[in-house]
Q: What sequence folds into this?
């Protein structure tokens, strides 16, 4: 079985500061990893995904994430955040033979001026 | 219309009512999903349809009844719900192929359901 843990329920940060949102996963098989963002009153939007190859994945809006197999982590980073990045961020995992996504509980990013 | 649309956006119903949620995808995908998003809980997959066939029912109570008449439309019929069913119900779609779980799911904006 697969599972995802997002260690922080809320991360406050000042505008233009760097941010890291943490995600750890558990799986007995190889995985695909995703980060989705949910803005208020909207559905989820894909930020980036790791399928294979380079462990550093670049996504939209200046976000990137690094797959670390030994630490079973897929942390999301942005070097300089904007007010508009305030949203809920979800890490998710799926396996090679199933299109079922397992989501973490989410991390609320609060960007303050 | 583009992407995945859901109607209504908000719904308030009593426990004895019958209502339906509608989802439509304009992306030409072959798979559609219903998720439940409750406060402080991870998104829960409810149902999956692939080429109109239900391929996943994640132990959902029978008071939730999905219907997928074609690859573009997905409904969730609701009857005799409980207050704990109040949540945001999200629909998603994807193009499934040989890449299995690598497919990106595209989400609608959700229906905010309140059960009184």
A:
């Amino acid at each position: 079985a697969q599972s995802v843990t997002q260690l922080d329920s809320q991360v406050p940060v000042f505008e233009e500061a760097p941010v890291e949102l943490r995600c750890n996963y558990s799986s007995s098989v190889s995985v695909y990893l995703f980060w989705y963002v949910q803005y208020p009153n909207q559905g989820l939007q894909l930020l980036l995904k790791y399928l294979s190859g380079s462990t550093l994945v670049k996504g939209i809006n200046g976000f990137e994430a690094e797959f670390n197999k030994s630490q079973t982590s897929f942390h999301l980073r942005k070097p300089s955040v904007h007010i508009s990045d305030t949203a809920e961020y979800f890490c998710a995992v799926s396996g090679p033979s199933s299109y079922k996504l397992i989501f973490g509980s989410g991390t609320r990013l609060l960007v303050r001026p | 219309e583009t992407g995945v649309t859901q109607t209504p956006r908000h719904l308030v119903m009593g426990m004895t009512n019958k209502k339906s949620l509608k989802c439509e995808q304009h992306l030409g995908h072959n798979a559609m999903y219903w998720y439940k998003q409750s406060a402080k809980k991870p998104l829960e997959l409810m149902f999956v349809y692939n080429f109109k066939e239900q391929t996943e029912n994640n132990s959902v109570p029978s008071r939730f009844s999905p219907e997928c008449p074609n690859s573009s439309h997905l409904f969730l019929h609701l009857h005799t719900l409980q207050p704990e069913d109040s949540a945001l119900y999200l629909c998603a779609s994807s193009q499934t192929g040989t890449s299995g779980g690598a497919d990106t799911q595209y989400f609608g904006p959700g229906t905010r359901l309140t059960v009184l």
Summary: The mean pLDDT of chain B is 90. The radius of gyration of chain B is 14 Å. Chain B touches chain A through 26 residues (CB under 8 Å). Chain B is about 0% helix and 55% strand.
